[in-house]
């Protein structure tokens, strides 16, 4: 996906080096390696926002500029899944309702449906494709049926003010398009996933549907790369670990939000980065820092 000139100017402002606000109330050492790693990438011009909370107590384990609104790429698709899940009880919009893909829905990058022959799929299958592979084509087909306005209303009803799905998925973003697919703050995203895990988003049935779709996610390339799980099969406990997560990837954007449960504790976490992606080494440094946070989370829950 290409970035407009306006977005490039916006990125230049966002990635200027500034002192991040850190908070680590658990202990001086619990997330020391993660703080150091994020601090290093921030010194190199990467904008960072992160937060983790204990799933049972709500205690803030660490935070770095968690109030800042960041580009989150495909993470906003979770809000679409919430709306879809909430509607499945409606006979006019059941899980078996068949939706056709049309020419205007076509888009590349992530997802498997664009490579399949089936021209139509049930609503629930489209949601599963989004959960498993962040399927862009499935996202656009569902958005055409539901509408961005409905997703916005649902988002606001949840009390989210700094997070949202802004647009459908596009191969190219022009000056009249939203500059990002979605935005979010780490504060709100950790709350959203904690609430999903507790069955509090809309109702228990809706929350469980969303969790079930997200548990299929095959992208463990960021924070979750530290957990040692099978990317293609981690819906059941593995060494006492259970993960539900969603990632967002775009040029200069790497973002992840999730819930990790372990034998000792559970956490909800969000880490977002925004950077100049002109050098491959910068991207690798960002991913390494995100995995370092993952190792800290793993140590906390295991």
Share in helix: 25-40%
Head-to-tail CA distance between termini: 38 Å
Please trace the helix and strand order, writing H or E for each element: HEHEEEHEEHHHEEHHEEEH
Tally of structural domains: 1
Q: Segments where pLDDT lies below 50 for 5+ residues?
A: 1-20
Number of helices: 9
Which class best fits the helix and strand makeup?
alpha+beta
E-strand count: 11
Overall mean pLDDT score? 92
Shape: globular
Largest sheet: 6 strands, antiparallel
Q: What is the CA-based Rg, rounded?
A: 18 Å
Strand content: 15-25%
What is the CATH topology classification name?
A: Beta-lactamase
* Strands side by side in the biggest sheet: 1-3-2-11-10-9
CATH superfamily: DD-peptidase/beta-lactamase superfamily
- CATH top-level class: Alpha Beta
Task: Report on the architecture of this protein.
- The longest helix is centred in the C-terminal third of the chain and has 22 residues, at 280-301.
- This protein has nine helices and eleven strands.
- Mean pLDDT is 92; it is low at 1-20.
- It has a single domain, classed as Beta-lactamase.
- The protein is 36% helix and 18% strand.
- The protein starts with a helix and ends with a helix.
- The strands form three sheets. Strands 1-3-2-11-10-9 form a six-stranded antiparallel beta sheet, sandwiched between helices.
- The relative contact order is 0.19.
- It is α+β, with helices and mostly antiparallel strands and 302 residues long.
- β10 and β11 (266-274) form a beta hairpin.
- α3 (77-87) crosses α5, α3 (77-87) crosses α6 and α4 (123-133) packs across α8 (204-214).
- The protein has helices spanning 5-14, 32-43, 77-87, 123-133, 136-146, 148-157, 186-197, 204-214, 280-301, and strands spanning 22-23, 47-54, 60-64, 70-71, 98-100, 120-122, 164-165, 182-184, 242-250, 253-261, 266-274.
- Residues 1-10 have a biased composition (Basic and acidic residues).
- Residues 11-23 have a biased composition (Basic residues).
- GO terms for molecular function: beta-lactamase activity.
- It comes from Compostimonas suwonensis.
- Residues 1-23 are annotated as: Disordered.
